[in-house]
């Protein structure tokens, strides 16, 4: 089966099952217009994140990696009017585009965007005694994943859901000879997920409009 077929099936599933709010499509288009990379989650993946948020009853979400704010908006919709999404973004251009997208969607009051290196920002949250988050989405630079996971656990409570995106890397994660830093970071975070004393986790590979990849899902234990 070809990547074109994977994408065609994704398009079909989105048409049949996923209702993408116009402000989500506008956010994606704004990212393209600003020259941001087209690496945000697909609409059906965004809906999955929103559903996980709702299943977990999440009102406080932490996101590592904002880009144009597409996945952030899925979370902002899901947490409701009394919820908040904290999203961490290194690149000031990305952050500026995202802020415009949040304002256009009328959801800026639900989003706190913190600029700077994600690990530094998350560590400040830890040091400042930030209340725990109900769901954490890790979708920033892949070499940083192991540290992001540790910080996510520090900012979690029992029952917090943690999602790590892009862990399969076109199958390269299973290649012991791969030297790409993103692959090495993905392998490291998968090992940590499988051996962490406070996590129950699994990982799934996916195909679709975003190619061959996958994600890991964990829940924090008592």
How many strands, which pairing sense, and closed or not: the largest β-sheet?
A: 7 strands, mixed
Helical coverage, percent range: 40-55%
**Assembly status:** single chain
- The poorly predicted ranges are none
CATH superfamily: Vaccinia Virus protein VP39
The shape is globular
Count of alpha and pi helical runs: 8
Rg over CA atoms: 17 Å
* Spatial strand order of the main sheet: 3-2-1-4-5-7-6
Structural class: alpha/beta
SSE string, helix = H, strand = E?
HHHEHEHEHEHEHEE
Annotation, overall tally of beta strands: 7
The percentage of residues in β strands lies in 15-25%
CA distance, first residue to last residue: 43 Å
Query: Judging by the overall fold, what is the CATH architecture?
Result: 3-Layer(aba) Sandwich
CATH top level label: Alpha Beta
Integer tally of domains: 1
Q: Which fold does the CATH topology refer to?
A: Rossmann fold
Task: Report the average pLDDT across residues.
Answer: 97
What can you tell me about this protein's structure?
With 222 residues, the protein is α/β, with parallel strands linked by helices. It has one domain (3-220): Vaccinia Virus protein VP39 (Rossmann fold). Helices cover 45% and strands 23% of the residues. It contains eight helices and seven strands, in the order αααβαβαβαβαβαββ.
Q: What are the main properties of this structure?
A:
222 residues; alpha/beta; 7 strands; Rossmann fold; 7-stranded mixed sheet; 8 helices
């Amino acid at each position: 089966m070809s990547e074109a077929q994977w994408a065609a099936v994704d398009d079909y599933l989105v048409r049949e099952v996923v209702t993408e709010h116009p402000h989500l499509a506008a956010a994606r288009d704004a990212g393209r217009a600003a020259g941001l990379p087209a690496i945000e989650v697909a609409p059906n993946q965004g809906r999955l994140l929103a559903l996980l948020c709702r299943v977990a009853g999440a009102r406080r979400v932490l996101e590592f990696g904002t880009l144009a704010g597409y996945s952030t908006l899925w979370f902002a919709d899901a947490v409701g009017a009394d919820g908040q999404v904290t999203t961490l973004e290194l690149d000031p251009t990305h952050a500026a585009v995202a802020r415009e997208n949040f304002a256009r969607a009328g959801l800026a009051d639900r989003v706190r965007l913190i600029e700077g290196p994600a690990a530094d920002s998350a560590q400040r949250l830890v040091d400042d005694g930030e209340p725990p988050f109900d769901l954490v989405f890790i979708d920033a630079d892949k070499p940083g994943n192991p540290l992001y996971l540790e910080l996510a656990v520090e900012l979690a409570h029992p029952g917090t859901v943690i999602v790590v995106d892009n862990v399969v890397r076109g199958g390269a994660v299973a290649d012991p000879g791969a030297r790409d830093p993103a692959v090495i970071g993905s392998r490291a975070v998968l090992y940590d997920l499988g051996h962490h004393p406070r996590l129950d986790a699994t990982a799934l590979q996916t195909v679709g409009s975003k190619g061959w990849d996958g994600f890991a899902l964990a829940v924090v234990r008592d």
